[in-house]
Structure formats: C-alpha cells, structure tokens
C-alpha cells in the first residue's frame, strides 16, 4: 500500500522552484510548540521542542500497532519540520543576535488526528520517554495568501532568497503582511545533520496581501 506523502500531493506548497510564486495556503492541522532563543543551542529550548514534535508525531503514526487505532487512520510519511519566526519585542530587522528569535516549531498532522488522538499521544510520550508535553498544542492553522521560494544553501544565506521574494512583491502589486499573527515561515526539507550546507533545501514563505487591501492583522 502506498503511503500518503504530503510533499508529493501538495507539491505547490512543499516543492516550489527557486523563483518566487504566489500560493494560497489552506487550513492545515499542526502540532505547534512556541519558544524563544537561539535555535543553534545544542540543549536549548528549540532543540527540545523539535525532539518533542518528532516524538509526538511518531507516537501518532505508530497508533496503527496499538489497541486504539484512530478512526480513518491511513499510512503516511511524516511531513517535514516547519517553523514560524519573528524577533523579540518590536524589532522588524534581525540584529544578528539569535537569542532574540521568537519561534513556533511545528509539524503537519493527518486529518484523522483529533484532540483525543493527540491527548493519547501526549500520554504515551510522557510515560515512555518522560518528556513534558505541556507546551505542545494541536490546532488547525489557515495561513492564506503567501509568496514562497526554494532556498538552496545554508540558513545564514537566506537573505539573498528573501530579497528575491521582496523583488517579486514590488513587481506584483503585493505587500509583505508580517505581523504578530502572520509570520515568516520556513519548511525544512533537508536534515542539517546529513546534508552538505550547500545542498540544504528550505522553503521560505512570506505572508502577503494585495497593495490595495488593508491588513486586518494586529
């Protein structure tokens, strides 16, 4: 039986080219964890959040072998890690100090993942791995109108790809709509522990609005 692979089914969301494109992102269920600080700290809050996301996602995936298989369960490939990013306080530009990052680390979940399924996964992870799951939440998030582009290379080289996105906005009658509700979004298609830095693939996604429309975000 073929496994559902969201990257292949929704290629327009997960596998854009290296030129910016406009997308309308539908409502998607995620497990999310909020945090702050430098994502490169080996034992920091971000690393712990990522470990918890994978633990919960695999616990849900392995429900097929338990006594309580979720209604509507199907075989699937665990989707890639994603993240929303902003800066502490009211800063609009990155100062270079990664401790200023405010982030939401998240992973897409299949539609059969209900609050009950999520709660069971939390209980399993707590009892088997001793992890605190209190910061994790299950929610459906509708991102809406965005412009995205594939970034190839190290994370620190992302500004060049972001500039391509802003150039696209300027020529397309679109404005960046980043706010406390709509944030810079990254989808990580490569494992930094295994991929060479120059071969890393990251989708950069920016929330936008038409220049003629007022932003309703705060």
Shape: globular
The average pLDDT is 92
The neighbouring-strand order within the major sheet is 1-3-2-6-7-4
Task: Tell me the CATH superfamily.
Answer: Regulatory factor, effector binding domain
- CATH class identity: Alpha Beta
Protein name: GyrI-like domain-containing protein
Pfam families: GyrI-like
Summarize the structure.
It contains five helices and seven strands, in the order H-H-E-H-E-E-H-E-H-E-E-E. It has 218 residues and is of the alpha+beta class. It holds the Pfam family GyrI-like.
How does this model look, in words?
By secondary structure, this protein is α+β, with helices and mostly antiparallel strands. It has a single domain (6-210), classed as Multidrug-efflux Transporter 1 Regulator Bmrr, Chain A, CATH 3.20.80. The chain is built from 5 helices and 7 strands. The relative contact order is 0.20. The termini are far apart. Helix 3 packs across helix 4. The model has no long low-confidence stretch (mean pLDDT 92). Strands 1-3-2-6-7-4 form a 6-stranded antiparallel β-barrel. 25% of the residues lie in helices and 30% in strands.
